[in-house]
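FORM 7B: Structural annotation worksheet

SECTION A. Query
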Amino acid sequence: MNTKQLITLKPLWHNEKQFIAIHFDINDTVNEYVKNLSYVKWSETYQVFCTHFSNKRIHELFTYFREKDWYVNYDALKTTTKGNDSTKIKKGITINTLPKLNDNYSKTISQYEKWLEQKRFSPNTVRTYVEVTSLFLRYLDLKNISVISARSIEQFNYDFIFSTKKSVSYQNQCISGIKHFIDFKKIEIEAIEIERPEKDRKLPNVLSKIEVKSLLDATKNLKHKTLLSLVYSAGLRIGEALSLTIKDVDFERGLIHIKSAKGRKDRYTLLSRNLIPILQSYMNHYNPKNHLFEGRMGNLYTQVSARQVIKKSLSNAGIKKYATLHTLRHSFATHLLENGTDIRYIQELLGHNSPKTTMIYTHISTTNLRDIKNPFDNL
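SECTION B. Predicted structure
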């Protein structure tokens, strides 16, 4: 007997604002149905579809999913304190406090966006810089500030970022976006007295070799298994894996050609001999036309679908450790280092600009740690 699809709506808090997170088991049909909602966006940070919270929005989502005769569980949203305004905080200025972007600023922002694109910034960087600069201009409007100065930027940093306890990463993005805007407008200002905070130096999560094997063994779908195996065995970013064409895979030389990767660089990485039969079996079964991984209509396989693949595989494998597709790339590098591969080769395989970036894996590797004699053993 077929069970009905379950949709679970849960609260999600971000930057002092409440959102509705939409959870469901991996399913292409549901995935496409959710993407048809114009007010729902995919969160890269939380790896989930979400939308702004309101009682009206809960009703809209409930009605929308019930049209498909799916179960909708929104019990978690019922526990939200009634009348709690998530945009109100004791100090600082939130997004909802700011006025809308006026017509003049909207035109300027549109020109700024084109300028950034012509500078060949990545789409994600363009989107981020445009967003944070728009907030800065709205802040100027709120404060009736007509001239951009170092003082106004410092004031925005304190009121909007520091007082509301935004992350270090977000603060750096704001400063960078505004500085590029100043270059775009050719504005001359005095030195900005804002010390760039250093990011927290957190070590990435990695899976052990046993966990990687369990993950792949638990992935029964051939396409999904091939994708996860390729990401791990070649140390790929998910965008690189999904951009691969059939011609990029060199079976004879045992290499994969990564084109226009991060920083618009090309590189070669490894094609595992053990992966070749899996890859060939996948290609014979699915018969991709151009890109190695394609959707049902021959379009590119989406990152959203790929993230749902690993989420399901982790669950099936019983792995409780937090992991993403990028964790497989971290695991690839760490396992190479533990096998004795020179750090310079790992840097080339990963496509890192600086060896300093690759050196982080020396802090994760347990090879040298296992050789240290623990003083407790001599007691």
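SECTION C. Observations
The radius of gyration is 24 Å. The longest helix spans residues 123-142.

SECTION D. Sign-off
Analyst initials: ____
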